[in-house]
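User: Can you write out an input/output pair for a complex, sequences first and structure second?

Assistant: Here is one pair. Inputs:
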Amino acid sequence: MAENDKIIDEVVGNDYKYGFTTNIEQEFAAVGLSEDTVRFISAKKNEPEWMLEWRLKAYKAWLKMEQPKWQNVHFPNIDFQSIIYYAAQKKKKVINSLDDVDPEIRSTYDKLGIPIQEQKLLAGVAVDYVMDSESVITTFRESLKEKGIIFCSISEAIREHPELVKQYLGSVVPQRDNYYAALNSAVFSDGSFVFIPKGVRCPMELSTYFRINAENTGQFERTLIIAEEGSYVSYLEGCTAPMRDENQLHAAVVELITMDNAEIKYSTVQNWYPGDKEGKGGIYNFVTKRGMCKGKNSKISWTQVETGSAITWKYPSCILKGDNSIGEFYSVAVTNNYQQADTGTKMIHIGKNTRSRIVSKGISAGKSQNSYRGQVQVHKTADNAYNFSQCDSLLIGDKCGAHTFPYLEIKNMTGKVEHEATTSKIGEDLLFYCNQRGLTNEEAVSMIINGYCKEVFKQLPMEFMVEAQKLLSISLEGSVG
Amino acid sequence: MLSIKNLTVAIGEKKILSDFNLEIKDGEIHAIMGPNGTGKSTLASTLAGKEEYEVLSGEVIFNGKNLLEMGADERAREGVFLAFQYPVEIPGVSTTNFMKAAVNAKRKHHGLDPMDAKDFLKLMKEKLALVEMNKEFTSRSINEGFSGGEKKRNEIFQMAMLEPALCLLDETDSGLDIDALRIVANGVNQLKSKNRSFLIITHYQRLLNYIVPDFVHVMYGGRIVKSGGKELALKLEEQGYDWIKEEVGELI
């Protein structure tokens, strides 16, 4: 057993590579949360009155709500009065081209391996860069505009496209949906807005890169994606943060809406700082992500690769309202050291012949806890609904835990729900077998993990797939020797 | 090829091999037989480098190098291959990908570039034929849902792919029906060469009808107590192990 411990320590013991900070002059909101904070943020963003009202309504609802306790994660009470709710670059200037971006910020993204540079643009990915509370720059917007696609920061959308924002913001995740969604609705600072008009297939991947930089600051971004009839978009989200001893809160809300025959593919590679090997510091990632298949034959597909965060707590979900609509959820969640994850999905079948597919791959190493929580609801109206769920757990070593909490609510007897689950372990016998064929422990683990996650990885756009594979081997490096 | 001198091995408190000696020259085939619990599989696992077996004393020299100083992976890259008695399943990893990783790990160790895809596929095709396996085998996850016979054939296939110098076969014949036994034995026979040696651990003489050994050793109480030619195996088959126990009774 002692050998096994050594092995685990070695593979799991790799350092976080994105833990630096950027020195830019920033301005902050006063510490803590009050009605004034909400007004301050709204004023900073030059928001119209209706938006401020919307925020205040959320704030008032939040005051009456309580932090949920049902999730299988443990953390000390969060003091919401010790968090800074707004941090932005001080030197404000209008950014018209990449050359106008602060060199410090540019070098931050360079260090992250995602240069805001021409060659990246030529690779055909349009990116919105968000640091702390504001969007830094959105690339490629002109060529997208020609097709009628709107891709900008949510702050800008509030000012430039109020009719769309008014109509859809909060339509999938209402202000009082849950504690953290209410908080986000009150204080959200930036995020991305995407609108794909009728019949348009977005010609490139759209991507947002979120970076927490400032200390003691929460990040509350808001993303809203609308796909009109017969349109298609693939959207990617990536995240990192500096290493800090204290925990930082990230409470985002993402809303997706698809009309008839539209499709949104939403991929996340989440790599927030997970805390150190003793479990100190790290991001609390409490996120509400939900998509509404509003139109018939529409489709929403979530793919997530979760490697970071001290605590991950999120359930990207699909409301399958349109007849024949399809919801998909593909997830790889890795926990190591003292990380905790309680993640999964909700598939809510309302329309006829709606179908959903859940593929969840949990990997636990070190002393971490990894839970899958999934809910499948088949409502009375959902004739011939079909769900397939596959929930697999992989354990590395014997100090970690994997848990599965499936919930099924079936109110229509024509529905069909299938659930499969497996648990496997990378133990000494498996490693010895691989060693005996000439592979080191790290080569063996990386090969096994990639095989195990294949079904999820192949859902990712090529560029992200490679990144995800690398990320996984990095986060598990040292978990076997 | 292999020289084992005074090897004493324990698991926890329990001594399994004691003062074990064996010399294997290039191209030789040695068979080790013996009753259950005499340390045959321990010998194979120790040579392959399984960590839980603790070497208390003795030395093992493999092609001039001290085998006991190497980790299991390095021993494999140096040319030691163990065909497992109970091969493990690796979900999600196809035999093709596994072999590609293994073959290239070995090539890298010997300063060679990774094999290109075309050559690799050609090599696979050639080696699959040795064990009468079809291509579809190699796209399945390793050993997942394989029958006992398929798992053992896959072991011999991997052995053929990696072209080791020293092949350790740990009860490869156990659980095989007569057809599978013939296929496995044929595979092994085709791999015989003057630069490759075999150590075959078996309970039964029947495997040795197909793979003819140069030497047969009987293990008892953690060491070799009797050695002979292939006729020794026949005698054991006829008379069992009791006469050996009697003969060596005083020694132990």
